[in-house]
Amino acid sequence: MSQPDTPSNLETLSAALEVGELQQLRFMLNKGLRPAEVAHLLEKTPPRERQILWNLLHKNLEGEVLQYLGDEAQADILSRMEASEVLAITETLETDDMVDILQQLPDRVMKELLQIMDQENRERVEQVLSYPEDTAGGLMNTDTVTIRPDITVETVLRYLRRHKEIPEMTDTLFVVSRKGAYIGVLPLTRLLTTDPDVLVREVMNTGVEAIPADMPDESVARQFEQLDLISAPVIDAQGKLLGRITIDDVVDVIREDADHSLMSMAGLDEDEDTFAPIMKTTRRRAVWLGINLITAFIASAVIGLFEDTIDKVVALAVLMPIVASMGGIAGSQTLTLMIRGQALGHVERSNIGWLFNRELIVGALNGLLWALVVAVVAVLWFQDLTVGIVIALAIVINLLAGAMAGTLLPMILKSAGIDPALAGSVLLTTITDVVGFFAFLGLATLFFA
Amino acid sequence: MSQPDTPSNLETLSAALEVGELQQLRFMLNKGLRPAEVAHLLEKTPPRERQILWNLLHKNLEGEVLQYLGDEAQADILSRMEASEVLAITETLETDDMVDILQQLPDRVMKELLQIMDQENRERVEQVLSYPEDTAGGLMNTDTVTIRPDITVETVLRYLRRHKEIPEMTDTLFVVSRKGAYIGVLPLTRLLTTDPDVLVREVMNTGVEAIPADMPDESVARQFEQLDLISAPVIDAQGKLLGRITIDDVVDVIREDADHSLMSMAGLDEDEDTFAPIMKTTRRRAVWLGINLITAFIASAVIGLFEDTIDKVVALAVLMPIVASMGGIAGSQTLTLMIRGQALGHVERSNIGWLFNRELIVGALNGLLWALVVAVVAVLWFQDLTVGIVIALAIVINLLAGAMAGTLLPMILKSAGIDPALAGSVLLTTITDVVGFFAFLGLATLFFA
């Protein structure tokens, strides 16, 4: 939160690093800032400085700071640690936060770490690890406060008072049967407003559905958003209470899911470290450029088919990028709307027909509008009516192609199990380039033949 | 949450609408689903069906459902209502949710509504309305539970038990002075584990900083994420407690901010209704296409400068999209990373230098790699060494241009108060198209002269 007039944490840090004032830095990292703030500071620091800062950090803060870092930054720091070091700094964390960190370890280190862990911890960790990272089970924590339905509110209050501390983010107690089956919840706010003589059974809320451990994390997030939950119980297939999910972990899911679409459409990963080192960045970007180069070559090949026509009418070479570009822009608007719609759960089989029709009509209307504009400009520019007719037709065709591809690609890719945000934009561009160049140069070849 | 085997809510609805089974629909909307689920259903329904469903909804549920709809869908429904109707259905909502809805009203209706509102409500609404929508004041609610520091925990417990209900999402009580100044918080969990004879003063937490009412909402969101808050006190400039912000509203901010970058980069609004009607969609998209058409014409104008060269070597027309496309792809990767970095607060004046250098080096390395590949293909394809040399040079130049534009544009736009996510991609494409075509065709003109 940098203010225009006061130096930001990062500026203080850079200044201190430059003059080598490690004492001041050490104080800032270990006393002045909260672990989440230190993590934020590390994330906006280039690799070399980040390493220096990390080394200045007190051992017993490392785990806390680590859990607030993005996956890639975590992996980077963990890659320089032994299993025993990782264990030492993560031991005090909540199980789900610990597991989040362990998941960034190479398999070899992870196995080693599980071996040296004490049994109780290992069992807890292995339970959470047994569920995929992106399910309710992978998000949950085992620090629930459970009560029986047949005791009085007074007994609950006495029981709580004997505890020194109730786990963070506890807004509700979970009511379970003798066998551990989930029955309902007793919110703290209700506990506080109820007559002490009443039984838990009489005031508990049985209307809160528990979350099955295998529910995908985006469904968990939607449930939290729709029901305004702070925490929710997680159960296994037999209805046994396994743990709970808290809103702080759900917020991370929401943030990551939303970032995912944005970053994937540019071929980037949502966990991407903003300050990733040069070689790592170069390698990853190279892959994406290579994939897009194939697209570009396909477009060139299409143009190559019409070399003779271009040779005759050089104006075509001048105007052809307009056709491809308009189709690409219109298509990517449709694609983006669809990808967001899928992420929000707005798009399904039964309403895709309406969307497809709307996009086609919108594409046709905008196609006609802009085709006219471009045709007029082209005719005035090159003093050639045929060029105007050809480009107008090609633009309408390509905007329709963009609308179709933009609507259907995300549906097709999703049902094929391919991420539409990642593959959609490359495929869309390929289609609008090919259709655009082919329609424009093909029609020109007919008209000028 | 559609399962492959059971029909989704939407499918049940479509089927019921088709056969006109309004009875079943009415039951589903008013009894079967929660307000948030009805809202989600409305959002994935085309305009005509949406209107039918809305009419079937019970009056006393309309306000609840409305508050879960996106801004655009809200505005659409509200546009067909009188001020008195809007008042009737929103009266029972929490102040912040009510204000959220009122903000979608045309000014005229809003004024009318404030006039017919009772005084107590009007004062509350006007207080929240006096803060911009995207600040802490605009997010806050006035339903706080406050206590004095000089009473015992026992007194607090008795005071709460006299309440029938504590406001939703209350995880903590706020401790205020006699004059209403914010002093600290007393979490319910601590209240429950403390000896009843202890004074509030002795157990309250004074380490939770209150949020100033004018703090921008993204800073509020960051504070909630960093400190894992469920609710936080909001104060005015004098330190007086005004209300509180709860995590459910912060989750909306996070979701909207994250969607904002994705949607803006395609010239769309984050509040965009997935099922917006045809004419509305056409008009909005037309604007974006028009802006991008200017870019396309600029690119064409650059190509037009080199008509003679293209006339001589038609291979240039075939290959030129590759140069522009590679620069555009590389540039938009940098741009996306920067825009996400700005949204996460990772990028500031003191680290932009490092990022700029890294992007330049990455651009140069990938430029050299792919320039070589493209050159080899071009030489083999057209049997012309000069074409290979020219395209290789142009690709390196354009990837460097993309890296520079991708890094600097977001910084420049942001300090000029222009949204980088909205303007960035258009400007970037203009730059990489112009540089790409100019470098390639310009060099070709020199080499083939």
From TrEMBL, chains A, B:
Compartments, as annotated in UniProt: Cell membrane; Membrane
Record-linked Pfam families: CBS, MgtE, MgtE_N
Keywords: CBS domain, Cell membrane, Magnesium, Membrane, Metal-binding, Transmembrane, Transmembrane helix, Transport
Domain of life: Bacteria
An annotated Gene Ontology molecular function: magnesium ion transmembrane transporter activity
This protein's GO CC annotations: plasma membrane
CDD domains according to UniProt: CBS_pair_Mg_transporter
Task of the protein: Acts as a magnesium transporter.
NCBIfam families: mgtE (TIGR00400)
Protein name per the record: Magnesium transporter MgtE
Species annotation: Marinobacterium halophilum
Taxonomy of the source species: Bacteria, Pseudomonadati, Pseudomonadota, Gammaproteobacteria, Oceanospirillales
